[in-house]
Amino acid sequence: MDIDAVTSSYARWAPVYDRTFGAITEVGRRKAAEYVNRQEPGELLEVGVGTGLSLPRFDRGHKITGVDYSHDMLAKAETRVGRMGLPNVEDLRQMDARKLDFDDDRFDTVVAMHVISVVPDPDRVMAEMVRVLKPGGRLVMTNHFARERGVLGYLSRRTARFADQLGWHSDFDIRVVTDTPGLREIERRRLPPLGMMTLLVLEKDASALHDRPLARNGAAPRTGVGSAEPRTT
Q1: DSSP string spanning 164-192?
Q2: Residue 29 reports pLDDT greater than 50
Q3: Lower CB count within 10 Å: N or C terminus of the chain?
Q4: Residues near 184 by Cβ (< 8 Å), separated by ≥ 6?
Q5: Rounded distance, CA 230 to CA 147, Å?
Q6: Residue 24: pLDDT over 70
Q7: Out of 56-65, 154-163, 199-208, 215-224, which region has the weakest mean confidence (pLDDT)?
Q8: d(CA 191, CA 141)
Q9: What are the C-alpha distances in Å from 190 to residues 39, 100, 118, 197, 214?
Q10: Is 110 exposed, middle or buried (CB count within 10 Å of its CB: 0-12, 13-18, 19+)?
């Protein structure tokens, strides 16, 4: 799946996303937000913010930045923030998740809901989310992951080709997430209906900041690649 295919897919789905995929992924968004709201308020990045369905669910103490590659989806998120009056949503930007335009160790929490199986180069996206997360910070994800056995495993394999045409991978391997360097798994929970979705919480190694050499000014050097043109609200 390449970035042009993703852009085209979400341009088609943006007008009806909230009533289709938004409804299907409702439980995952709710459970992820509930987990985040039990943590200390801080700087929060939502990668793949989409139409902004999750934004009203976060407590106002969280200072939220949202990024998405799709201009069409972001336009709906901006409209939602303006209509609902969400002062804690500080910035919405068009950005490639493979090249996050943020400093290292910036955010207390990074959230990615139903995103990692639809992006090109998921390994790079994972590495970027880890990079911008503070040591000791939490990465909170919800997603559908492949099952090896049972009815859901059979359905994942049977629908893989069709799902790819819609812009997501039904056979996505959870180890792409859990084996990411610098993270340790804190919680894994299957969600209704039928355990089709999974809530994952991972913590960035608290020693990560001290493992990198310091720049001349005493700050940790940025290790990401490239930058994206920001879109401000």
Answers
A1: HHHT--TT--THHHHT-TTEEEEEEEEES
A2: yes
A3: C
A4: 202, 203, 205
A5: 37
A6: yes
A7: 215-224
A8: 12
A9: 20, 29, 20, 6, 40
A10: buried
Average model confidence (pLDDT) across the chain? 81
The rounded distance, in Å, linking the Cα atoms of 114 and 223 is: 26
Mean pLDDT value of segment 193-206: 91
Tell me the residue type at 37: N
Sign of CA dihedral 141, 103, 37, 86: negative
The token pair at 139 is 């990465």
CA dihedral angle for residue 200, residue 137, residue 182, residue 180, rounded to 10 degrees? 30
The separation between the first and the last C-alpha atoms of the chain, rounded to the nearest angstrom, is 29
The answer, yes or no, to whether the previous bond of 213 is cis (omega within 30 of 0) is no
Look-up: residue for tokens 């970035």? 3
In angstroms, the Cα distances linking 77 to 39, 111, 124, 219 are 24, 16, 25, 34
Taken in order 102, 106, 107, 110, the sign of the CA dihedral is: positive
- pLDDT tens per residue across span 143-179: 988 865 555 554 555 444 544 444 455 578 999 999 9
Q: Where are the beta strands (DSSP E) in 48-127?
A: 63-68, 89-94, 107-113
The answer to whether 94 and 231 are in contact (CB under 8 A) is yes
Question: Facing residues of 47 across strands?
Answer: 67, 112
The CATH architecture to which 3-144+171-208 belongs is 3-Layer(aba) Sandwich (3.40)
Q: What is the pTM of this model?
A: 0.78
**pLDDT value, residue 210:** 41
